[in-house]
Amino acid sequence: MTAPVLELRGIAGGYGEADILHGVSLTVAGGEIVVVIGPNGAGKSTAIKAVFGLLRISAGQILLGGEEITGLSTEKLITLGVSYVPQTGNVFPTLSVEENLELGAYIRNDDWRPRAREIYEMFPPLADRREQAAGTLSGGERQMVAIGRALMLEPRILLLDEPTAGLSPAYQHDILMIAKDINSSGVPILMVEQNARQALEIADRGYILVDGQNRLDDDASVLLSSPDVAKMFLGG
Amino acid sequence: MAEFVNFYLIPGLVLGSIYALGAIGVSMLFSILRFAHFAHGDMMTLAAYLALPVVVGLGLHPLAGAVAAAVMTSAVALGIDKIAYQPVRARPTIVAVMISLGVALMLRSVIQIGFGVKIESYSAGQIVPPLRFDWFVILEKHIWIIASTLVLMLAVHLLLSRTRAGKAMRAMSDSAELAQLTGIPTERVVRLTWIVGASLAAIAGVFAAWDTYLQTMMGWFLLLPIFAATILGGIGRPYGAMMGGLIIGLAEELSTYPWITDDPLVSPGYKTGIAFAIMVVLLIFRPHGLFGGRVF
Amino acid sequence: MSPDQIYGLFLYGISLLTMGGIYALMTLGLNMHWGLTGILNIGIAGFFAVGAYTSAILAAAPHPGHWGGFGLPAVLTFPAAMVASAVVAYGIAGICIRLRSDYLAIASIGIAEILRLVVKNAKEVTNGTLGISNLPRPFEWIPGAGGQLAFLGLVIVLVLGVYWLAERARTSPWGRTMRAIRDNEDAARALGKDVDAFRTRAFVTGAAFMGLAGAMTAHYIKFIGPEATEPLQTTFLVWVMLIVGGSGSNRGAILGAVLMWTVWSASEIVAGYLPAELAARAAFVRVFLIGLVLVVVLQRFEGGILGPKRGET
User: Fold this and answer.
1) Are C47 and C39 in contact (CB under 8 A)?
2) Which of A65, A108, B147, C63 has its CA 20 to 30 A from that of A34?
3) Which 3 state secondary structure label does DSSP give C39?
4) pLDDT, tens digit, 9 for 90 and up, residues B193-230
5) Using CB atoms, which residue from C99, C121, C284 is nearest to B283?
6) Residue of A nearest to B177 (CA)
């Protein structure tokens, strides 16, 4: 059996002195979309930031393809194939769409243009707006630029922090469909979402975090059909 | 007409070029490192003095002196960044602002100790007749200064719009945090910013000395109009800084033209106050600058 | 030591404490701006000059070169100096108190420069570069060292008074609000605090102290000229004093002023013993040291001697 793409083993940690996570474990296997849900303040986004080296980790291990990456710097993690799309401020607003993509490939030494063409095929609305400043785009289009930029490095895993936050319902749906498409093209995704129900619908598996700890995890379809989960975490 | 062009417009453009070159660096540093670099003027003074042995000692052209000064000043700026600013990068930027004031004092006193305080010149005793084209009279050095500034502006434009490093600089000025999450080596971008900013400041310092003379307080007096130009152009907008520099330079020179009566509109003693006055008016009405920069 | 030398030393000690005390007025003012409120004022020299010239013009004897002839006593001119600086500060606050600290720093330095130009160029008012001389010094009618001692007494009383005011301001609810604003302006705004009004009040009060210091200096040395508005000895020295003493602490502000003035003044004496060639350079070495102290203390000793350390308020 091959090692999962990403594995968190009992991660504890936080930003300052106090820990926010108190033992979070999860795995993402090749080809999966895994969604982390839970109430506000449960540490969902914190968990994803832990993977990307943005957290002080006090206990536990993180493995990428079976290799330990706990405590590595963000810079190093990017070269290892981890890409992260933050929830807000995730585009360079005064740079054009194309420049945003180009910079996503900053650490690539080869020609970035073929990859940008693939991104434009994935996100047709962006193809018409190459020269437009990213800050002038709509929220949904900005999210596409952000995800496109993260994909420029052809990552081994894509981390999405609440990709539908602040978007109109139509765009929320579009972005989740895009995540599904990206996943179908072979990129495993670990995603944090407030729109738990919609996110579980496209996901393979889900984890529920409460107070910085695992509460429950199962196949997305099982979580969706559980009345208890629906009542407590999916808003009825 | 002839008097206006020869004695007001051309000097205004020369001064504006010097301000613009300084302001580009201040604007870049402000937008990438997020602090107002108060040692910029004294870095210009240092460059002017570093070029002195090249121009007077070796007898080379002041432009060669400017290039040499740019190289040396960049090295100094990188050293200062490492010793003075890098250790406080994670602290509130205001600490860096104040440290830059300390650095300004240190730079100035080092120049005063090393070169003395008497006024120096690149061309002591030489009198170069101006070039005449009918009524139009211009000093050759003024042609060089204005032309070189235009070339440098074009170079900055190409750097920022065509090269990956330049785009990374713009990206960092948009969001240093996102730049880091994207894998852009931010410390390397910071070093590049220092090299560009210090080189332009060095060339501006040599130009200022070439235009008039060297004096250890020259950079401090250049600093405030340069800040005014930076704010006028909108912080973080190098193109705005270029325009801002030219506008402030022209405004200072043209303010002493006898526009209404036979006397200068503004007494020459207050000439340097024009930049501050423009700046204060801007801060009240257009803190984003004329061209819509950001207020950090 | 001969009695003359001891007497000389005694007088030197008095002048040291007098100037140290006057600087303490400025550091207390700056602490109100920076330590308490987070206003980055690099235009101290401007407020100093406004106070100094206001008091000088009101007190000076008639003179063809500048305004004067009012012959008012210090008991009126010192408060007038404070009012003048406060009024100027109020005007400046209206323009730039809402700006981020960097902009405020640039604006404050720009305004100080404009004031410097005015002082230099408005010759009919200020006598230009010649300055205003023969200013009366309070208590100078007392013979011997008594006059100087009495003036020192006045300085001490004023420093204690300003300290008491500043301390009361710091520990009052107003002071707590100020610190809240300094530490998190947005949060304070969100709580409905009129941040600009609070900052304006602190700015005006601190500027009044600086104006008072300007007036005291002018009358103590019996002269005021445009050199006094050069930023080095006023603005930067005052900053170093506050940073060393401990920004945020009023006692630190006083300690820093007296300590650094002693060092500054002693280094001048040391330089005096050097050969002429070296002595000229020593002046620049002192400037270098001001810069160095500023950098080192800011980098490594954040709280200065008495200031709050990181994380404290």
Assistant:
1) no
2) A108
3) coil
4) 999 999 999 999 999 999 999 999 999 989 989 998 99
5) C99
6) A89
Q: Which residue has the tokens 């709580």?
A: C191
The verdict on a CB contact (< 8 Å) between A91 and B171 is no
Record the pTM: 0.89
The complex's ipTM? 0.90
Architecture of B2-117+130-285 per CATH?
A: Orthogonal Bundle (1.10)
CB neighbours of residue C183 within 10 Å: 11
Q: Do chains A and C touch (3 or more CB pairs under 8 A)?
A: no
Size of interface A-B (CB pairs under 8 A): 54
Give the three-class secondary structure for A32: coil
Which residue of B276, B281, B294 to mutate against C (max C Cβ within 10 Å)? B276
d(CA C257, CA C241): 5
Homologous superfamily of A6-88+157-233: P-loop containing nucleotide triphosphate hydrolases (3.40.50.300)
Q: What is the pLDDT of residues B14-27, one digit of tens each?
A: 999 999 999 999 99
- The answer to whether B177 contacts A89, with C-beta atoms less than 8 Å apart, is yes
Total domains, chain C: 1
B159-168: long-range pairs with CB below 8 Å, 24+:
B159/B196, B160/B238, B164/A102, B164/A103, B164/A106, B165/B189, B165/B192, B167/A95, B167/A99, B167/A102, B167/A103, B168/A103, B168/A106
Nearest CA to B288 out of B98, B95, B31, B92 is that of B31
Domain extents in chain A: 6-88+157-233
* Distance between CA atoms of residues C17 and C13, nearest Å: 6
In a domain, C250, yes or no: no
Residue B217 near chain C (CB below 8 Å)? no
- What are the domain boundaries of chain B? 2-117+130-285
pLDDT digits (tens, 9 = 90+) for C85-127: 999 999 888 877 877 777 788 888 888 888 888 888 888 888 8
Amino acid sitting at position A141: E
